[in-house]
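Format is sequence with structure; example below:
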Amino acid sequence: MSYIDGFITPVAMAARARFAEHARAAASIVREHGASRVVDTWGEDVPVGKRNDIAGAVRLKPHESPSFGWIEFADRPTRDAFGAGIVADERLAALGLPPFDFSRMILGGFEVIVDTGRGAAPGFIDGYVLPVALVDREAYRAFAASASAVFLDHGAIRHVEAWGDDVPAGDTVDFSRAALAQDDEAVVVAWVEWPDRAARDRATPLVMADERMANPPTPLPCDGQRMIFGGFAVLNDA
């Protein structure tokens, strides 16, 4: 089963170019240690939520933008070996610290449970974080898998859903807090890849109106009221 490290990071808007440059340089080193793909993005369409949202997840400041990113691995053992090797790589240390506040970055390890599509590199992604009851894992996987065909039929390149497997508690921010997850729930990180923002904007109302989305299971195997989400432009895809 493939595996990802997912993260959301607050970055100063003035540091966008430096952030992208650092991400590209770091990605080449990261891939040498077993990662198959590294993606970094920049928030463009990140709505304010009623209870929780991406901005609140990282205590975003007015002059900052969130970055939704991930690193892909063949499996968890590959990811664990990566973690041991990357910390000792002097080249990464030589790059210097990336231009963001580590104390407000949320991160975790996730087991991929849905992965459909693939194709050209995306220009835009919709990213999601939500809580799902531990007992509803299979029901949620089936529900998410059924939505994949809808996304792909309306122009998406890829749809991925990943189940929280190694999600540490942070001092002030973390994925569980972001999704308001309870003790009997896991955090899911998911995203839909699009060719560009225009394709995503055209598809969104079509996906919502698709008859295949009209009759979701009752009850839903997740709490959409606590889902946080946003649209992000791709800065780095290596």
